[in-house]
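Fold it.
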Amino acid sequence: MPGFAQTASPARGGRATARLDSGRRRIETCPMEHQGGCHCGSLRVRVWLTKPPADMPVRSCACSFCRAHGTRTVSDPAGRAEIWAEWPLVQEYRFGSATADYLLCRRCGVYIGAVGDTAAGFRCVINTLCLDDRAAFVRQASHPDYDQETVETRLARRARNWMPALVHTVR
């Protein structure tokens, strides 16, 4: 399980809190929780987002992996994600620049997301299709093309845009 042993979790969110913006409208400041995982339960995901699912941008990049899997990924740099995995049943897949591990279940084949190290720490994107409330992520997916990015540019983008992640192994 290279790359996962030394990960650290971001600060834990507490009870739901809110503040008022300049227009005196209530703004939630505590992330909203979403759960899910693969079909057989070998990989479980918990995601905390700072916006409702209907307001979250969804991506399905133009790479061959995302096109083949019909992904709909989400990330929130102000949120966080935790993944629990029965590690012998996890298939890590790397391709292209080999800067992220795409996590799939060996038993049922579900793709749950991608993880990788960045200058800002361990980060991830989560495939909304593995979340229990997947239907709430209603925005049309954008299809960015990252093929021409340098490795440095790619890692910097992920540090800015992907969310902090913690992976727990279950034996």
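Helices lie at 64-69, 151-161.
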